[in-house]
Amino acid sequence: LRDTAGEVVGVNVVCQEITDQANTEVALREADRRKDEFLAMLAHELRNPLAPMRNGLEILQRVPGDSPIAARTRDMMGRQITHMVRLIDDLLDVSRIRQGKLSLQRRPVPVREVIDAALEASQPLMDGAQHRLTVSLPDEPLVVDADPTRLAQVLSNLLNNAAKYTPDGGQIHLSADAQGDEVRVRIADNGVGIPPGMLPHVFDLFTQVGHHAQRAQGGLGIGLSLARRLVTLHGGCLRAESAGPDQGSTFTITLPRLTDAARAAG
Ligand code: ADP
Predict the structure, then answer these.
(1) 6: left (phi over 0), alpha (psi -120 to 50) or beta
(2) Which of 2, 58, 85, 193 lies 20 to 30 A from 107 at CA?
(3) For a substitution probing ligand 1, which of 84, 133, 161 has the most ligand atoms within 8 Å of its CB?
(4) Where in the cell is it found (predicted)?
């Protein structure tokens, strides 16, 4: 700040603002770090009681002479525990990624192998809703440098969503192909679709489209955020398309393709 004669009359206010801004940034980073730590601790605490509960159910399964209603109740409890474990594991994974603590166990892996594992993991949900699932894969081997467990987790998450957000009897199509030096995996459904305004946000943590029928499906809005973070860790990208409500949705993963030449050079 200068007076009319050009004399510097003060710099304090400017310095103060910069300091405030720097302080705010440090405080925000610290708050973020504490939030991540809390999230991780919460997830651990919530997960701990689930292991003995699951073991207890397994023991009950072996008790002879169960009545049909007891068996049905036990199965329902088993499904709910599995659902909770999945939600909490997703939460733990997100906090691990945010803290830079999630490492991938990568190896050259055929995409077909990953797809088979994902289909197996998603089978119960698919069967329950009676969707028509079609799969088309090329004859040529498509190999990627990936952590097969993590990639199967991403695909199974997208398949579960396709089943969740597609009314009974709907159609789900999974396909993979090569696009130049990339492998593309797509999961398309003809379900409830996504409004155009929400498309850029479905990958944000804790974001749900909020449609009434969809909220009835539960969930926390973690799955897609986690899926995108995992695909990004693999050097790929995950995007969503939908022509709008009731027009279905398509999720596309692209990953660098591992060709024979790249492997020989690698
Ligand atoms: P959740 O399913 O637990 O709500 P996700 O992160 O997996 O969380 O998904 C975020 C939101 O994106 C969902 O709440 C849903 O509104 C929307 N969504 C995800 N997949 C689909 C799909 N296949 N069709 C329509 N909407 C979808």
Answers:
(1) left
(2) 85
(3) 161
(4) Cell inner membrane
